[in-house]
Structures are given as structure tokens and as C-alpha cells.
Amino acid sequence: MPSQQLQSVSDTAFWMAYYRALESDRPDALMHDIYARDLAGERGEHLVQRLTQGRGMTWPILRTVCFDELIIRQIAQGIDTVLNLAAGLDTRPYRLRLPASLHWIEVDLPEVISYKEEKLAGETPACRLRRVAAHLLQPDVRQALFTEVNAASTNVLVLTEGLLTYLRAEEVKNLANDLHGQSQFNYWITDLAAPFIVERMQEHLGKDLQAANADMYFAPAEGAEFFRPHGWNMQEFREFLSEGRRLNREIPMARFGRLIEPLFPWYIRRMREQWRSGVILMRR
After folding, report:
1. Hey, what CATH topology would domain 58-283 get?
2. How much is the pTM?
């Protein structure tokens, strides 16, 4: 039986893939990923049982859908290359309707790339897909890759889904600077967690995360303003509380908040500030 313990930060990819599988099984699914269950395997299922007692979580699906929508829109507006950093078990090149001319580059650790290539060996992506095994925290490796991609592209969209939270602020600053240093890297989509959310995650999953060397760090109190000194300006913010209501996948606490808001408006305002997490689109 696969271990029910997180063993490394890469294991979070199995966890998230299983949530996509659960969503895909719903009659009112917001997205369909026919590859997710096989990619997640027993490992993903057992991790969900261990970490959340088998319960679904709303925010991973909200994050996935928000990324999907923003990616599709940006591609329609002229993106020719998508650079997906710490791609994990993402399957967008297979499940989204993408132009065949699009270049999609996935970057992750060698063991993740190897596993994914094995699992998807018989599948055909909708676009031109390339996978790169690289350690993104090694500055020379990262910069060499970015320089290569920049030279071969005219309009790059960078994705960092589920990555930044596991980095320290200095590491995020260095990554932002390196991305901005490439003239064709024009857009960046990432998720951003509020300090309160990271504290709650550490409170509930701290021992598991620490054992896997997957502690959560990055949750800047200033939100997207963190990136402005490094050349990135926020264009759009998809807040999970609002997106949950729009997509009919409301976070339980948000639904409760709406019910009591007439009685305790000050409390709901504070709650919204504490829970202010979501997906941001930035432009250089």
C-alpha cells in the first residue's frame, strides 16, 4: 500500500490531482480531467484520506478553474509560449482546447517529469509540448532555461500554480527578478495566499508538511504589491471567496458569512481580509 504520509513537496501534486479527479466525477463538474485519477493513483487517494479524511476541498478546484480561464483568455490575446514552472501533474496541454501552434513548456523535478511521461506516454497533447527536468531553485539552471525560452519566443505567459507558497520571500523575489529579466516574459499567473490561510494550513497540516520538507512560507501581507518593485503589476485578482460564489463552489465559511453578515458586518469584513487569497494575473 502506498504511504499515506507526505514524503516530499512533490507529493502535493498527487494530492491535487486526486481533487481534480473528484471534481471530474461530479454531475455539475466545473472542469473535466480524464487523466487525473490515473495520475493521482492510490498515492493521491491515500494522501487525501490521511490529510483531509477523504473530504474534498474547494480551493484547489477554484484555483484550477481560475487558472484555466485566465490561460485561455491570454492565449486568445496572443500568447505564443506558456512556461509552467513546477508543473506537477497538470494536464492542461491535453484537456484544454489549445491552438496547435502554441508552445507549452513544463518544468519540474526529474522524478516528476519521468513519472508523468510514463503515465501519459500514449496520449497526444493539443499543442507543442516540451518537458524539462530542472531544479528551479538553482539560479544558474533557472536563468539558463529562461534565457533559452526567451530567445525562442515572442510573448510568454508564466505559470506558477501551487509553487510560491513553499518558497521563502527572498526566493520569490529572486524568481520574480529573473522572470522580469527576460524581455519576452510578459504575463505571469500565480496563486497567492493570505497570511491567515497559511497559518491555518500550518496549524492543521504542519507536522505532515514539515516531515516532507514542504513547509509553507510565502504569504505577503501586502499581497500582490510584493511583486511591484520587481517589475510585475497586477492586472486582475480572482479572489476565492468571490469566485466560489460565482462558480457555485462556495467555501463553507463564506456561505455562513453571507448568512450572518447583516448581523455582524464588522466581523465579515475582517474575515474577508483574513481570507483574501486567490489567483492573480500580472504583467511586466
Report:
1. Rossmann fold (3.40.50)
2. 0.90
